[in-house]
Amino acid sequence: MNKTKTVIYLDNNATTPPHERVLEKTFEWLKLWGNPSSIHGHGRGPKNLMREARRKISEMIVASNPLEVIFTSCGSESNNLVIRGTFDYFYKTNPKKNVLICSAIEHPSVIKTMKALEPRGAEVKIIPVSRSGEIDLAVYENMLNDKVALVSVMSASNESGVIFPIKKLAKIARQKEILFHTDAVQALGKIPLGVTHWDVDFASFAGHKVYALRGCGVVYAKRGTILESLITGGGQERGRRCGTENLLAIAALAEMSVEVKSVEAKKNKMEALRDYMENRILSEISDVEIIAQTAKRLPNTSCLIVSGVSGETLLMNLDLKNFSVSTGSACSAGNPEPSAALLAMGISHAEAQSSLRLSLGWNTTKEEIDLFVDALKDVVVRLRKIAQMRELENTL
0.90 cut: is pTM over it? Predict the structure, then answer.
């Protein structure tokens, strides 16, 4: 009888497996099937669970009040709510504030959402980034004026792992009385963070990126900020996001607040493993570049350019060897074009098509890293030989 081979998962920026704490309590939460909006007995249990979950999540992101937490379905919806909700508010109250600003490497749910508002009069401006993915603060500040409604800059890149100086960026925006949003989906559970420390107006999070479940996103909205709702209906989330809440996914994210408290230790472990992996790759495989290696990065993320090999071909060959990796954002999977974020960093089309993203998890081990590097080395050598043979055939 053949033993099932273990698949080594190195794509934790795409999604994470549900934590044991979540799996152990799922059946218990499923028993609370009543509607939290109902005032009878079947609704009170779910309502109490959701109230407690809101409190835990508020503490996890270091908000000042649980009522600053708005539940959505995912990170993309959270970004949409902030961008569209802010634009709609100013569209009604001060249409001259029609400028939306974001960095060149934002998630598609930020850039595409802003551009989708252009037919309604939005003017979208893009903050350039360097090859290391960093923002020039002077250039950024010069882009801000009294026509800007919202600035959105991610806390950390889902592809390169670059961490942005959110506190500094938000302070510059605040000095000019401009609202500031950060997509913190990739940061939660990887680095210490706090929305009150950053002093941002809005922030987005997603449960499935931090070992909870798909189906729960969060918007942090500082007290006093106004968002026009995208979904009207029964008045849930104080009218800012209507629709019956996904209590199971909300409870799962709240459960992970206990684990996030020890994020510093998790960060140190992942960073040590990532550095070990990168050192092995650079010393044992020729012509490999680590994107933004010198920049401040997420502790778990490594984006490689492997010269002479297609990233997609690498991915498929590694998949056959039972390693799960990616060539970029999972939200753009299936797109034959290279990553727009990498191109925006000044990386060439050919280089971007040779990229491979590795994202470690809380439970990734040194043994798994060693097995992966050995497999990567084998695949790269083989694919480069094939490419050389084809090139030789073409010259004959």
Answer: yes
